[in-house]
Design brief:
CATH architecture of the largest domain: 7 Propeller
Low-confidence stretches: 253-266, 268-315, 337-347
Distance between the termini: 57 Å
Shape: elongated
Helix content: 25-40%
Largest sheet: 8 strands, mixed
Mean pLDDT: 83
CATH class of the largest domain: Mainly Beta
Number of strands: 40
Number of helices: 12
CATH superfamily of the largest domain: YVTN repeat-like/Quinoprotein amine dehydrogenase
Oligomer: single chain
Radius of gyration: 37 Å
Number of domains: 4
């Protein structure tokens, strides 16, 4: 039978060691109304709203509890999803109110739902529950002495509430209490002893002796519907039914003289029968108020339509029936307009509808079981997409920003993404940074758009610049050095031979070298056989040799330095008849240790290694399903072959991600920024092995991020 268990409910309200003979203002027990959402017909809803921060009037907590019940019974889906929706709705209302600058209100809250032989409890803020079923007594949170678990942010202080949910199995005879944080001051063994007493009245009596100063508590005992109850109780009913009776009383505008026949429901209370008398008084008061309202409307109508005393009587412009209809009917019309506007969402803006969709999507995503990562990923990706659409209407809305942040945090956990805050190291005017070279505390950047090279000196903290970015005058397209005019620069590198020099090279074969100490003193030379280059991509300098990746020629040209000049013709790195297909190669580098292994990476994410021309494919490992480098695409790579955690850093602009792998291809980490648009134009990274600080170029800005927290 659907109503197998019923609830006996009692309350305890102690303030300043004084027991108050009234129900705590935020207590509510609600059975399903006649028109509850599908699946809610057999549910019983319990709510306990608790003060937090500034204490509000009692009606504030009463209205919150009532709104929670109405929202729950009008929401379909699972119990956990509905409870999250209830608490999100209340929090959203409170947070928006507090953001408006008016009086700041907040509240902690416990909600519980009885369905069949299960009780589901949701809590926000400083609140606790204890459940005794069978021979076991457990608390929620599990350790009431742990402040970090018990004292959580209340409703109204952050855009997305921290909601904690747990389901408990119960049976006939089970008891549970919902309480404020004062419950934690009582040892669990004594709480268990109190819950084992003969009846609910004795349970409350035990708690009275255990509480030292104050508490707001609801105690519930679950009994079979057919079992007799030894305490004086009244049958509970839905507040919807109470509201209907009040409405009928207002229409009749006469006192209620007879007690209505109440329908049997699952919720019963152990409060004394005086509650019936209080209900009568409440109905009578409501009816009296309605009568006073009608009289007031009559006085207003009299002032509007009555003739002056000194004027002779004339034929009235309106009949008495019309006036009576206007007085009585006008408020009804207003009510109907309001109701239909609410039902049809008239007056609800596009933004409000969008926010509702985002909250519903987030609520659904939170209900997905943690054992289904693909489903979690799909749900939160969809939620973030909806929230981002709403942010186009109001970019800085805190609720939407909180939803996207929550979604990204969960996706990061599912996908093992390391999110980092970044610091802008330097911003180059109207630039598109295509290449970075790091040498000590000097960072060189090639502006591919304006064809100029900059030097940025890094400060001692590693994440800020010691001064403004300094353009190198001799490394500029159109500049003449040693009588040679520089063309379009496609790459830069650092040559550590003969004291070291920063090197820039253009597509016509002009190479410019500048000494770091004397950056204004540069020399230039023209590389031999440059006319045979088809599509020069990158250069690398290793042991006095300059290697040039020529993708369309399927070749790496190798120039030997003599006396600081590359005066001889190049040799081919790949000499076999069958050469690797380098058509879509985007970057390469050479290991500085050993015999110099060449790493080549391609736009589709594949990577190959070469030793003396012999080719071997890198086998990637540990990449998540659906996010291989082939799925996201690659822009560049950085080879760290120092003894301090050697690795390869791979740049993917489409996923706003820097991948860190071992030199054999095993994924170690994926780095993204907390604000993903900062990596929207990500093109290049370099890393300082001694500090583990990564420098990333995105658009015209160079960002610094610490890889180790």
């Amino acid at each position: 039978m659907p109503f197998e268990l019923e609830s006996l409910v009692g309350h305890l309200y102690i303030m300043g060691k004084r027991v108050l003979k009234t129900t705590p203002p935020g207590v509510l027990v609600e059975v399903a109304p006649a028109k509850a959402a599908r699946g809610r017909e057999a549910d019983t809803f319990f709510a306990l709203v608790l003060p937090s921060g500034t204490v509000a009037p009692n009606t504030f907590y009463e209205q919150m509890a009532q709104m929670a019940a109405e929202r729950f019974f009008n929401t379909g889906g699972s119990v956990t999803a509905a409870l999250r929706d209830v608490l999100n709705m209340l929090n959203n209302n409170l947070f928006e109110h507090n953001q408006s600058g008016r009086t700041h209100y907040e509240a902690s809250m416990l909600c519980a739902v009885l369905r069949g032989e299960e009780i589901t409890i949701a809590r926000v803020g400083a609140a606790a529950a204890v459940i005794r079923a069978g021979d076991q007594t457990v608390s929620y949170p599990e350790d009431l002495t742990a402040d970090e678990a018990l004292f959580q942010p209340p409703l109204g202080v952050q855009p997305i509430p921290a909601v904690f949910l747990k389901r408990f199995s119960i049976e006939a005879g089970a008891r549970f209490v919902l309480s404020d944080a004062s419950l934690a001051e009582i040892p669990l063994a004594k709480i268990d002893q109190a819950l084992r007493t003969a009846n609910l009245e004795q349970v409350l009596g035990e708690f009275k002796m255990l509480v030292t100063l104050q508490i707001q508590l609801m105690a519930v005992e679950l009994v079979r519907a057919e079992e007799p109850v030894p305490l004086p109780v009244v049958m509970g009913e839905s507040t919807t039914a109470i509201a209907a009776e009040l409405a009928a009383a207002r229409q009749q505008a006469v006192p209620v003289t007879a007690e209505p026949e109440l329908p049997r429901s699952r919720a019963r209370s152990n409060r004394p029968p005086v509650m019936v008398e209080e209900s009568r008084r409440a109905v009578g008061t409501a009816a009296d108020s309605a009568g006073r309202s009608l009289l007031a409307l009559g006085e207003v109508a009299g002032k509007l339509f009555a003739r002056p005393i000194d004027t002779p009587p004339t034929k009235p412009r309106f009949s008495s029936r019309f006036l009576m209809a206007a007085v009585v009917g006008f408020p009804a019309i207003v009510v109907l307009i309001v109701v239909f506007s609410w039902v049809l969402r008239i007056g609800e803006t596009e933004f409000e509808v969008c926010v509702t969709r985002s909250l519903e999507a987030a609520t659904f995503a939170r209900t997905i079981d943690s054992s289904a990562p693909p489903s979690i990923k799909a749900a939160w990706q969809g939620t973030i997409k909806v929230a981002n659409e709403c942010l186009k209407l109001r970019p800085q809305d805190p609720t939407l920003l909180a939803i996207t942040q929550e979604g990204r945090t969960i996706l990061d956990q599912v996908e093992s993404i390391s999110r980092r805050d970044v610091a802008p190291l330097a911003t180059l005017p109207d630039a598109q940074i295509g290449r970075l070279v790091l040498q000590g505390l000097d960072l060189y950047a090639l502006d591919s758009k304006n064809q100029i090279v900059y030097r940025i000196q890094i400060g001692g903290d590693g994440v800020s610049a010691a001064g403004a970015a300094q353009p190198i005058p001799s490394m500029l397209q159109g500049k003449t050095v040693d009588g040679i005019t520089i063309g379009p620069i496609f790459d830069i590198a650092y040559d550590d031979q003969q004291g070291g020099a920063i090197v820039a090279i253009d597509t016509t074969g002009v190479l410019v070298r500048c000494q770091p100490r004397f950056i204004m003193e540069c020399d230039a030379q023209r590389m031999l056989n440059a006319e045979n280059w088809k599509s020069p991509k990158r250069i690398a300098i290793w042991q006095g040799r300059l290697y040039l990746l020529d993708a369309l020629s399927n070749q790496i040209w190798r120039y030997q330095a003599t006396g600081g000049q590359y005066a001889s013709s190049p040799t081919e790195y790949f000499t076999d008849t069958v050469r690797p297909n380098l058509t879509n190669a985007v970057d390469f580098d050479i290991s500085t240790t050993g015999i110099g292994k060449v790493y080549i990476i391609y736009s589709d994410g594949l990577m190959s290694t070469h030793i003396s021309g012999e080719t071997e494919q890198v086998a990637y490992a540990n990449f998540p399903d659906g996010e291989t480098l082939n799925d996201v695409g690659v822009q560049s790579m950085f080879l760290n072959d120092s003894p301090i955690k050697p690795a390869i850093f791979i740049v993917s602009q489409s996923s706003h991600t820097v991948y860190e792998t071992t030199q054999s291809g095993s994924l170690m980490a994926r780095y993204r920024t907390t604000q993903e648009d900062q990596f929207e134009l990500l093109t290049e990274v370099v890393m300082d092995p001694s500090t583990r600080i990564l420098y990333a170029a995105s658009g015209n800005t160079i960002f610094a991020l610490k890889l180790d927290r």
